[in-house]
Each structure stands twice: as C-alpha cells, then as structure tokens.
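User: quick one, fold this
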Amino acid sequence: MSSVAFEAQRAALADVVAIPVTPFAEDGAVDRDAHRALVRRLIDGGITTLTPNGNTGEFYALTPEERRLVTELTVDEAGDRAVILVGVGHDVPTAVASARHARELGAQMVMVHQPVHPYVSQRGWVDYHRAIAESVPELGVVPYIRNAQLHGERLAELADDCPNVIGVKYAVPDASRFAAFARDAGLERFVWVAGLAEPYAPSYFSAGATGFTSGLVNVAPAVSLNMIEALRSGDYPAAMKVWEQIRRFEELRAANGSADNVTVVKEALASLGLCRREVRPPSRPLPEDERAEVAAIAAGWSI
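Assistant:
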C-alpha cells in the first residue's frame, strides 16, 4: 500500500488523539453502556481520532478479552464518525493477534505500546515493531516511544522495512531530545504526536509535532480543541492560556510518577455523573480529601 493510501490516517494523527477511559460497572466488569456513552460524547464534542486500549484506558489492567471488547465497542459506536487507532502490545503474538483483530473490525491504525521488557536493545526494538507492522500492512502503525535511549535512526530503519509505520507517539519528557529524534528519523516522513498530552504540546509543536494525545479530553473536549486550534495557527500565547487553565488538573495527574494519571480523569468524570470513579490496581481511587478539588476543576470548565 502506497504512502498516499495512508493520507487519511496521517491527517487523523495530526489532531487531538483522544485516549478514552475504560469505565467499570459496580461488579468490576467493563461498563459497556457507559463506554459507548463516553465515546459518543467525545465524537459529539468534535473529537475524530480515538485510541481504545491506551494507557488512560488502563490497557495493562485489562484482560485480553476485555481489550477485544473495548476495541469492539469503540469501533461499533464510532462508525464512520472517527478514525480508530487501537492500542496493542505485550508479547509479539499477542500484539499481532490484537492488530489483526483491529483490522477485522475495520480500525484504520494501531498504536504499539512500548515493549514491556527489562532489556530492550535498539535492534530488538526494531524487530519487535517490524513483526507487528508486517502482520497488518494495510493498517497505519504508530510506535509509542517512551524510551529516551532510542535513536531516531532506528525508527527510520523500521519504516524502510515497513512503509505503514506512518506516525510516532513520542512520550519522552524532553523537548530538545524530541526535536533531535524527529530530525534524525525524518521530520517530514512521519506524523509526530506529542505523547505527553496538553502540558507538553506547545513545546513539542514548536519542535515539529502536529498532534497530541489527551486523557483530559474525556472530561472537556472543547478545552483540548481550543489548544490544538491555537497551536495550528501558531498562536502560542493563546495555547499557553489553555495550558494555564489545565495546569493544576495535569499536575495532579503527574504527581508521584503519574500515580493518579487515570484516577484524576475518572474522578472528574464521576463528578460529572458520566462514569464510576473505580480504577484497577496498580492504580487506586483518589482519596476523599482530593476529590473536591478535581470536581471543582471539572465544573469550572463549564462543558
């Protein structure tokens, strides 16, 4: 498939890439109705790129059956109103099976979570992603990079073998390293998605990103859209106004090594009556004394 065939996918990455939460019912199972309602709310709010089974969706706390269910619910609810970028990962056979499942359902892309292994070599990183990308040549493939040691040349090498590797979710918290990595890999060759969401989006856009991921978007789609509109027009003062608006919410998510990253989002949604607050271990529910602050922030966005 030629690169031209991936133009729609590339355009979808140069946007707010929403990472939906996975709501749980009282019995602890995935709440199907709430999940559909949250996906619908995102799309109705103007969001057109969704990543089921991302980290805000508690990917690593879901069973294989639940991950398939989340993909199915998202694709079915979105229909043709959004582009779906399905998170896949774990061992290679599991990731390949997930990618093929996504393809069967009609998803357009997969995001490959960083290899979960204590020993990741540069060449092994290429081999891991190549095995997944080659299994679904019709789908756009987006590596999720959190490894500060990885060299941009390795990504270029991967894409030489796999032309369906079209974008990158870059999530190393270092704008200078991102700028260098993107240029070593090929700035124009890939769509660069700021993988650390709104707090890093202005600095990463200044270095070449054209999209950003978001968990906050679950709560307030309009806020995330305001930021990308400002960034697209090069209006950094306006983007930083949004940055100031979301700063405390994102600081709460990032505290203690992002211990409450998902918890804060679900707490905000719970305060709005949109889903239950429960998260799965190793995350934890927000302590009672911190809930009011999150609710106040969510209410202040007046959505």
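User: anything notable?
Assistant: Residues 249 and 294 are 7 Å apart (CA to CA).
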